[in-house]
Amino acid sequence: MTNTQVTLVQIDNYGPWTVTPEPRREVDLQTLQSRLYADLSQLIGNRMGYVFFTRFDNMVAVTNGLDADAHALIQESVGNRYPVTVSLSIGVDSSPAAALGTATDQLQDAGSAQDKGRTEILRGDPIQPSERTDTDVQIAHFDVNDATGKYTDQLNEFDSFINIEQGYAELMRYMRHENDSLSFFVGGDNIIAVCDGIDEAAYLDAIEHVNETVGVELKVGVGLDRTAQAAGMAAKHALETCREENTDVEFAR
Amino acid sequence: MTNTQVTLVQIDNYGPWTVTPEPRREVDLQTLQSRLYADLSQLIGNRMGYVFFTRFDNMVAVTNGLDADAHALIQESVGNRYPVTVSLSIGVDSSPAAALGTATDQLQDAGSAQDKGRTEILRGDPIQPSERTDTDVQIAHFDVNDATGKYTDQLNEFDSFINIEQGYAELMRYMRHENDSLSFFVGGDNIIAVCDGIDEAAYLDAIEHVNETVGVELKVGVGLDRTAQAAGMAAKHALETCREENTDVEFAR
Amino acid sequence: MTNTQVTLVQIDNYGPWTVTPEPRREVDLQTLQSRLYADLSQLIGNRMGYVFFTRFDNMVAVTNGLDADAHALIQESVGNRYPVTVSLSIGVDSSPAAALGTATDQLQDAGSAQDKGRTEILRGDPIQPSERTDTDVQIAHFDVNDATGKYTDQLNEFDSFINIEQGYAELMRYMRHENDSLSFFVGGDNIIAVCDGIDEAAYLDAIEHVNETVGVELKVGVGLDRTAQAAGMAAKHALETCREENTDVEFAR
Amino acid sequence: MTNTQVTLVQIDNYGPWTVTPEPRREVDLQTLQSRLYADLSQLIGNRMGYVFFTRFDNMVAVTNGLDADAHALIQESVGNRYPVTVSLSIGVDSSPAAALGTATDQLQDAGSAQDKGRTEILRGDPIQPSERTDTDVQIAHFDVNDATGKYTDQLNEFDSFINIEQGYAELMRYMRHENDSLSFFVGGDNIIAVCDGIDEAAYLDAIEHVNETVGVELKVGVGLDRTAQAAGMAAKHALETCREENTDVEFAR
User: Fold this and answer.
1) A221 closest CA partner among A209, A202, A234
2) Residue B82's closest CA among B17, B23, B16, B32?
3) Nearest CB to B43: which of C46, C73, C77?
4) Other C-beta atoms within 10 Å of B212: how many?
5) What is the separation of C-alpha D236 from the centre of its chain, rounded to a whole number of angstroms?
6) Per-residue model confidence as pLDDT tens digits over C164-176
7) How confident is the model over D21-48, as pLDDT tens digits?
8) For the CA atoms of A148, A153, A157, A159, what is the dihedral angle to 10 degrees?
9) D137-251 maps to which CATH number?
10) Of A76, A136, D62, D245, which is most buried with the most CB atoms under 10 A?
11) At CB < 8 Å, which residues of chain D contact B?
């Protein structure tokens, strides 16, 4: 059974800040958001976690291996370098969706995302080191079959994007409802899902569902390990195996 | 009539690079992609353009006011600072979708996105300064009504995200097919669309369509100007008017 | 005669901020400072200016070609993305040192660098476009003869650094007092000086002085143009000529 | 007795790269260098180390607590995100200067800094965890007495800078030769020295020497701990004590 530690990262009171005293230049907001995400990728990633940009003002991270001190350091480092601060809330569950549910509840209990007085919240309990196992995190790395040949090199770029986006929108919803999994678009034709130790049949079912519903053909490599980084790298290698052997689902060995 | 100048930014041969010689660490790829986008936001944004992250390996920019030299400088600056290079292709049309179609065609003609020998392409003709007008770019800035109150402060963050994402997926498709417009999620509950000078009825129709189809309620501020930055800032102010006056569509005066 | 436009960039009330409420983590301060400098390099550099890190909390830029609006945009963009703000003060003079003197005076008149109420000052008048000429900026690019062979590949790195640093400390002082020029270490074994249209004899004299005083052998390429970027690139090519022809001073033709 | 672990970071074959095929735009080189330094500050800093920009193409880090894997990860992460690679060489000694000497020797033995074939070297042995103690690193944080009042708010900014720079050049040389210590300018009026467990008399002597030689008045806070970060933060607090109690040297208790 997996045991996923999820951290919800929320920029404090961000919406109001973006229009105070006047709406701020969009390109500066875009720069701020994407650089904050890049920094979190390094801060969390170099401790073997993964973070996903999600809505940028709310980001979701898989943080198995990061203790409370590591979270506090990340929060402090952001506060020292950005005009905004972040709140962090940690949830743990075999189901990634339930873990994020716990993390969200804790943050909502502390106050609204647009409450000026609710800043730099740090809630939740990381997994104890003694309870960690080598099968705590399952990561599935999907991509689209021959996306470059079928889309990028053929269609208007926006239509390529629509195809990828419809595939993603369908997969994210299906995986959430059928498998308690959290799926994130990570650029190109790639989607990374954090899963509750689901099996080959479940992956095949999701791939079929997306193909039947929106006509986008996916394949997936799956890895299982102690941290998001280790599981994710195993998933990438498994995806390479899919490519070489022309298969739809591969589990890392 | 609008006259949108669109630039397609494509990372050269990116897919193969990400797995050569072995799959690279995902967090480094995420950092690279989001910082490249941040840099383009500044490079293009400080010349009054807008750039959208789209798929990150393919980004779409509105570049009215940027001539060929400005494009060449951006291309050179990226080449000097990243392990990857970018190709740029410029299209101009009253229809943003058609402009991007031209830009895409030009780049596809130059070779595949995964052709090792096709690097740092720069194609297409910017608008001549003498032909530019104060109504060349129409920008529509949408957001979700009370997203914080209805979603962020209530739901599991992933379910908030699913709602925003379904709203976006529906809007992008509808605006593309009905209005030749290009719509981009820009974080939070915000979507920015580059439009072909469409009117209030067309915006109301799109908002109704999204509400009926996926139950997400949008409002929109619309600006028209010489550059994306000026039109976009006007749109933001118009969106503030929607908020204050509780209306669905506002055009900047 | 040159006509250098210099901008002093000063982080507002930075010293007190770094220790409020407690001393902030040094690595975050270093990250903040060097990224702010990197951003200014792009914001100013992509408008054909040069900026030097100097003391990081006070930076000096050569901004021929940047008008007041460009300065205001840079100031706004920093304010939107950093936890600190910057003041900018512009001076113009045939002497770079005198231009910086004017810029400094204007900022000192506005209040102390550690005055909480003195933020985002923007003072001084850029050169009128009609008064700009192709010989407004002289840039001299120095490097150390065979620094890799004599220092980097031979000495303890700190002793290499001491040599470079003593060479720089001597050159900066001499060029300031003898030639009203501003010299900046820019990394490696490179020093860039902004000069008042001085001639070959003055450069040879400075090189001799440094060699005699601290035993560091320099050579220099010199460029003259409308902007720092153009003059600086010409200087780099001239320095390549020094390397190829084994000469001490070369002026770009 | 201190036991400093020093890592020399050297950009591989950087000089030739900056002029190949033609000299690259200086502002892009400045951006690249300062961002690489910022990234290393985070990568090393968030593992409790310190890194100093030194010459930018050669940087010096204090890395007590970073093992070989952490070094390898940093090297890989840079290689994934920059157009250049870095070599890393680790030395350990009670004398910081000797530790850097070892690190430099190892890298020089591997080949020239401008040898195309010598890339991504990783040499040297970090301290074994069992051998680490709470007094391994001594950090001294100097600043200039009333630098804002005497220099920044009074003089031409370049003359302020000359004063700070002369103070630094004198201190770095003296501390290296008298105390085997490595001193680095870190911006503003701040100098951080990595020291070989020297005592109050040695600090007072250095301060007097700088004052007598170049007329710059320094004070210093000193911290001793297991890591650079912990020792450095203690030093900052001790420096605050100097400010409050108007003393020249304070050791953290």
Assistant:
1) A234
2) B32
3) C46
4) 9
5) 15
6) 999 999 999 999 9
7) 999 999 999 999 999 999 999 999 999 9
8) -80
9) 3.30.70.270
10) D62
11) 24-25, 28-29, 31-32, 35, 76-77, 79-83
Which residue of chain C comes nearest to D233, CA vs CA? C25
* Amino acid making up residue A207: I
- Please report all neighbours of B, defined by 3+ CB atom pairs within 8 A: A, C, D
Domain chopping of chain D, boundaries: 4-131, 137-251
Task: Name the residue among B146, B152, B139 with its Cα closest to residue B217.
Answer: B146
Instruction: State the ipTM, two decimals.
Output: 0.97
Do the Cβ atoms of D172 and C162 come within 8 Å? yes
Kindly state which CATH superfamily the domain D4-131 is placed in.
Answer: Nucleotide cyclase, GGDEF domain (3.30.70.1230)
Nearest CB to C112 within list D53, D153, D192: D153
DSSP-derived 3-state class of residue A84: coil
Pull the structure tokens for residue B247: 């209306």
Nearest partner of D110 among D126, D125, D88, judged by Cα: D88
pLDDT digits (tens, 9 = 90+) for C38-59: 999 999 999 999 999 999 999 9
Structural tokens at position A17: 């800040």
Residue count (chain B): 253
Chain D closest CA to C249's CA: distance in Å? 18
Which residues in chain D are contacts of C189 at CB distance < 8 A? Answer: 55
The residue type found at D230 is: A
Instruction: Tell me, yes or no, if the two domains A4-131 and A137-251 fold the same way.
Output: yes
Hey, is A187 helix, strand or coil? coil
* Residue pair C185/D169 in contact by the 8 Å Cβ criterion: no
Taking contacts as CB-CB distances below 8 angstroms, the residues of chain A near C35 are 81
List residues of chain C with CB under 8 Å from any CB of chain B.
39, 42-43, 46, 73, 77
Residue A213 · residue A243 · CB < 8 Å: no
